[in-house]
Amino acid sequence: MIHWPRVRQLRDEVGADEIDEVIAIFLDEVQEVIARLHADTERLELEQNLHFLKGSAMSLGFDQFSKLCQDGERRAAAGQAAEVDLAEILAAYDASKSVFQAELPSNLT
Questions:
Q1: What is the pLDDT along the chain (109 residues), one digit of tens a residue?
Q2: CA 109 to CA 95: how far, in whole Å?
Q3: pTM (predicted TM-score)
Q4: In whole angstroms, what is the distance from residue 1 CA to residue 105 CA?
Q5: What are phi and psi of 79, to 5 degrees?
Q6: 81-95 residue pLDDT tens
Q7: For residue 101, what are the domain limits?
Q8: CA–CA separation, 82 and 12 (whole Å)
Q9: Looking at the 3D structure of the chain, how many domains does it have?
Q10: Cα dihedral sign for 66, 1, 5, 26?
Q11: How many CA atoms lie within 13 A of 68 on its CB side?
């Protein structure tokens, strides 16, 4: 679910002192885009929102979530936005976030 080598690589790139801030920014930005997904009932910006989420998820090692976002982005680009299972994507984010927060301390040592 979480690709911990990517998280450690990010920590090495930004520094151990900055990783907590980077994580907080990531989680805040993702929550903002998730709110936009809920507000976009016509799914007019679904492709763009999923693209952003995919990139954010990849940068912080949320593998399953990023793959679901990528699949949804492709479907939306192909005119199949109505077929994208947002509930599955959002559930994957919630599960990934829980695992990430629980296992972060032991994976950054």
A1: 999 999 999 999 999 999 999 999 999 999 999 999 999 999 999 999 999 999 999 999 999 999 999 999 999 999 999 999 999 999 999 999 999 999 999 998 7
A2: 22
A3: 0.93
A4: 16
A5: 80, 20
A6: 999 999 999 999 999
A7: 4-107
A8: 40
A9: 1
A10: positive
A11: 20
Instruction: Count the neighbouring beta carbons within 10 Å of the beta carbon of residue 44.
Output: 11
Whole-number Å distance between alpha carbons of 41 and 18: 36
Identify residue 37 by its one-letter amino acid code.
L
For the chain, first and last CA: distance in Å? 19
DSSP state of 2: B
- Cα 37 to chain centroid, rounded: 13
Which residues touch 1 (CB under 8 Å, ≥6 apart)?
62, 63, 64, 95, 96, 99
Chain CA centroid to CA 42, Å? 22
**Separation of alpha carbons 11 and 95, rounded Å:** 22
